[in-house]
Amino acid sequence: MEGYSQEDWQRHYDEDDLGWDLGQVAPPFVSLLESNTIFPCKTLVPGCGRGHEVIFLAENGFDVTAVDYSIGAVNHLNSAVSERQLNTRVLNLDFFELDSTHNGLYDLLIEQTFFCAISPSQRSLYVETVARALKKGGMIAGLFYHTGQEGGPPFNTTREDIIEHFSGSFEIRELAQAENSAEQRKDKEWLAILVKK
Ligand SMILES: C[S@@+](CC[C@H](N)C(=O)[O-])C[C@H]1O[C@@H](n2cnc3c(N)ncnc32)[C@H](O)[C@@H]1O
């Protein structure tokens, strides 16, 4: 399969080589909270990494479940969660193997640099898994990375890719270039609000 294996991701944590890590919550998510587009609810964050979004949401009252299959990511996030005494679940597993106890459990899923991290051949499985985990009417609030480059990860995500993959199971409520991306992602992110049909 094209892209990284679990060992490849773990190696990045072992070597502290986290080029994707913004070191802070991605600013568009702060705006989504301020505009009440998202509000405290049962939330899933797949491929959470060190979990800046997870901490931000949990500190703002969201009931967050975070998933990452790299132990380096999970250990880091677990320390941050316990330091802040947050009530957040951090699961060390393959997102595509979420068991059926998660079906229809979540109101919101936060997509941040995970869709571009997986192999393009897994994109249909991503949509299936997310659709399975969300309640009907549940929402994906996502930042999708338009790298404009061949290969990956990160694998390029165009506006058309988002429409092609999500329009079957999701209403595309909003899909536009993010306005206040972090400097390194400026003009390269699609902000999508997708609602499960
Ligand atoms: C590019 S990083 C993004 C991390 C975080 N979302 C961020 O923006 O800082 C992708 C993350 O997805 C995780 N990952 C990749 N494939 C996964 C899978 N199938 N299940 C769970 N985690 C996965 C990797 O371990 C890595 O932490």
Return the domain count: 1
CATH top level class name: Alpha Beta
Number of helices: 6
CATH superfamily: Vaccinia Virus protein VP39
Describe the structure.
This protein has 197 residues and is of the alpha/beta class. The protein has a single domain (6-196), classed as 3-Layer(aba) Sandwich (Rossmann fold). Helix content is 29%, strand content 24%. It contains six helices and seven strands. It has helices spanning 6-14, 27-34, 52-59, 71-83, 123-133, 159-166, and strands at residues 42-46, 63-67, 89-91, 106-112, 134-145, 170-177, 189-196. It has a seven-stranded mixed β-sheet, sandwiched between helices. The chain is globular. The two termini are 30 Å apart. The structure holds S-adenosylmethionine. S-adenosylmethionine binds at residues 9, 20-21, 47-50, 67-70, 73, 94-96, 112-114, 117-118.
